[in-house]
Amino acid sequence: MSGQHGAADTSETPTIIRGACILLMITGFVSVMFSLPVMLNAGSARCRLSRTFIDQANNDKKDWNNVDTGGQKAKDVPCDDAVRLAKEIPRNEKGTRKIPIPSESALSTQNTIAAVMGGGSAVAGFYLIRSLSRWSRNAAIGFSGAGLILQVLGILSLGTFVFVAYALAFSPASREIWPREGPARG
């Protein structure tokens, strides 16, 4: 096989390469699905995040970071109050550091980038499984690496990157499809 394929017959695609492409498409799609609700309503996401921080602080074993919610459960605290209260949760016992609550624009921007990267990952996986081109392979590895940096899917992002990098850059199948180009001799 050569890296100069047009539209490849995917049944001939080596299993490890096909698996990496499918994994990229799935994780890319999931990244978009996790990011889309925050992109569409960053205010609601900020509210939920603040309430989660309050709930975690009140349910851990530390008394110094408890939040006075006036007898309400964290889920019942109004959004504006939840954000204000969450910003005052101490991160250390001295209270010198507080929990950072991202702004709506920060949440929206971060999740837009994550959605674009997830979409790019899915598209790169799709084009790679169809064409087996070196360009598609490099894009797939690049988007997988970006997913590692953004960590939308947590530890799954690391596992995806390790598998994709091995499958597309170091596996015997990848070396057969995309042989290393050495310096020109002449």
Count of discrete alpha- or pi-helical segments spanning 4 or more residues: 7
H/E element sequence = HHHHHHH
By DSSP, the count of extended strands is: 0
Beta strand %: under 5%
What can be said about this structure in brief?
This protein has 186 residues and is mainly alpha-helical. The protein has helices at 15-40, 42-59, 79-87, 104-131, 134-150, 155-170, 172-177. The chain is built from 7 helices and no strands.
Can you describe this structure?
By secondary structure, the protein is mostly helical. The protein has two domains: 13-39 and 106-177; 40-102, no CATH class. The protein is 65% helix and 0% strand. It has seven helices and no strands. Helix 2 packs across helix 3, helix 4 runs antiparallel to helix 5 and helix 5 (134-150) packs antiparallel against helix 6. The longest helix has 28 residues, at 104-131. The model is unreliable at 1-6 (pLDDT under 50).
Quick tags:
186 residues, mainly alpha, 2 domains, 65% helix, elongated, disordered N terminus
Topology at a glance:
Layout: H1 15-40, H2 42-59, H3 79-87, H4 104-131, H5 134-150, H6 155-170, H7 172-177
Helix pairs in contact: 1-2, 1-4, 1-6, 2-3, 2-4, 4-5, 5-6
